């Protein structure tokens, strides 16, 4: 059994555990920022193809105790690198650490790179080149206080870069985080879904792909295709089965709107580029004035948040109006608002039934859940 580690946005680890089990992963265990799991090597093909929540799938090739950089070098040098990829492939080494006693991760990175290149040159008289931007073979090392683990990255370009979004806003929402929020919201295809501040349409794209059962990893390439053990026939068959499973493209009660015509144009362009324009209903509208498209449903949205003082003041005026609009126009709906602005719950003046910490990249956010019950959501102002 091979060992793998799938990274994901912090806050989605337990959801990723469930997803990996559905993909037949074994010995699944969540840790901060990802999930450890096991299975046949071909499982990494399936996870890269099908996972909506993972960011990368790392193949664990070594775990050893260490005391210094030379221990790390010896562990890396002892691995059969030439069995895994040819010297013509380019490499890049990245190292992360948790409570490591070693003071320079740059030096550790250099020693791993030297070990890989020295071993391959000793075996083949050729040395792989280092490519920092788009390497064929990304290598990752991780140090704890006592153990050193080496991984080959089977993914390459991160999985949240679906390739479906040709236009993005200033602070784009990562696609796998959007997919995770749809899971946290309990949304399933067939339920009415609305993003009333849809921006470039990330929630809409993820919901449409989920509704049609489109694997997020189709029509892209992965680092595992450059490994010596790549099973091209098996990969083609896996992709063929996934494509055959897709549902016909039709409207799925997924609605998006935005006040900005330019922003809506970008969302429409993204949907058209993905061939999903028939699945989603888009219109230009003010979230403070829009009416519910169905009696019940789910709202998911990532409203703007202020960086400059003027923006903060404008949002301080906007949030109470948003709370009023949700209460007035969306009785019977559940609203899920992702925000890095921790003033939102106080200013929107609605009682959040749940607050889930999440990270969009390095940006800490909260997902606030509001159940829009007639007459029961408004927080009372203190008397006097």
Task: Please give the structural blueprint.
Blueprint (H helix, E strand, L loop, with lengths): L1 E6 L5 H10 L3 E6 L2 E6 L3 H8 L5 E10 L3 H9 L3 H4 L6 E7 L7 H20 L12 E7 L3 E7 L21 H10 L8 E3 L6 H10 L20 H13 L9 E5 L2 H13 L6 E5 L12 E5 L7 H21 L3 E7 L4 H5 L5 E7 L2 E9 L13
Parallel strand pairs: 5-6, 8-9, 8-11, 9-10, 11-12
Antiparallel strand pairs: 1-3, 1-4, 2-3, 4-7, 6-7, 12-14, 13-14
Helix pairs in contact: 2-8, 3-5, 6-7
Describe this structure in words.
32% of the residues lie in helices and 23% in strands. It has 384 residues and is of the alpha/beta class. It has two domains: 2-153, 2-Layer Sandwich (VC0802-like); 175-212 and 247-371, Vaccinia Virus protein VP39 (Rossmann fold, 3-Layer(aba) Sandwich), CATH 3.40.50.150. A seven-stranded mixed beta sheet has the order 2-3-1-4-7-6-5. Strands 10-9-8-11-12-14-13 form a seven-stranded mixed beta sheet, with helices on one face. α2 packs parallel to α8 (232-244), α3 packs parallel to α5 (105-124) and α6 crosses α7. The model has no long low-confidence stretch (mean pLDDT 93).
């Amino acid at each position: 059994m091979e060992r793998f580690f799938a990274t994901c946005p912090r806050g989605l680890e337990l959801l990723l555990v469930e997803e990996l089990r559905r993909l037949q992963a074994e010995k699944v265990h969540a840790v901060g920022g990802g999930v450890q799991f096991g299975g046949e090597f071909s499982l990494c093909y399936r996870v890269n193809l099908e996972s909506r929540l993972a960011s990368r799938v790392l193949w664990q090739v070594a775990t050893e105790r260490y005391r210094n950089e030379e221990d790390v070098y010896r562990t890396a040098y002892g691995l059969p690198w030439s069995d895994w990829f040819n010297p013509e492939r380019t490499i890049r080494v990245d190292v992360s650490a948790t409570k490591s006693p070693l003071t320079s991760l740059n030096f550790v990175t250099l020693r791993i790179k030297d070990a890989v290149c020295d071993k391959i040159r000793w075996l083949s008289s050729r040395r792989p080149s280092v490519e920092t931007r788009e390497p064929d073979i990304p290598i990752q090392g991780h140090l704890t206080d006592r153990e050193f683990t080496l991984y080959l990255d089977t993914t390459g370009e991160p999985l949240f870069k679906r390739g479906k979004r040709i236009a993005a806003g200033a602070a784009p929402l990562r696609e796998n985080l959007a997919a995770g929020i749809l899971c946290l919201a309990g949304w399933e295809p067939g339920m009415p879904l609305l993003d009333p501040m849809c921006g470039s349409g990330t929630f809409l794209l993820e919901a449409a792909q989920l509704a049609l059962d489109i694997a997020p990893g189709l029509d892209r390439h992965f680092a595992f295709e450059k490994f010596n053990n790549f099973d091209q026939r098996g990969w083609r068959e896996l992709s063929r089965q996934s494509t055959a499973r897709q549902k016909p493209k039709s409207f799925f009660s997924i609605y998006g709107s935005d006040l900005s015509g330019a922003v809506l144009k970008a969302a429409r362009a993204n949907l058209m580029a993905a061939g999903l324009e028939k699945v989603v209903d888009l219109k230009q509208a003010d979230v403070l004035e829009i009416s519910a498209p169905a009696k019940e449903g789910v709202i998911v949205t990532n409203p703007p948040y202020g960086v400059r003082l003027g923006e903060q003041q404008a949002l301080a005026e906007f949030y109470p109006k948003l709370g009023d609009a949700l209460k007035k126009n969306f009785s019977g709906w559940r609203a899920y608002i992702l925000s890095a602005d921790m003033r939102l719950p106080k200013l929107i003046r609605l009682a959040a039934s749940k607050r889930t910490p999440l990270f969009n990249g390095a940006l800490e956010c909260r997902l606030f859940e509001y159940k829009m019950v007639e007459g029961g959501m408004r927080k009372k102002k203190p008397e006097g």
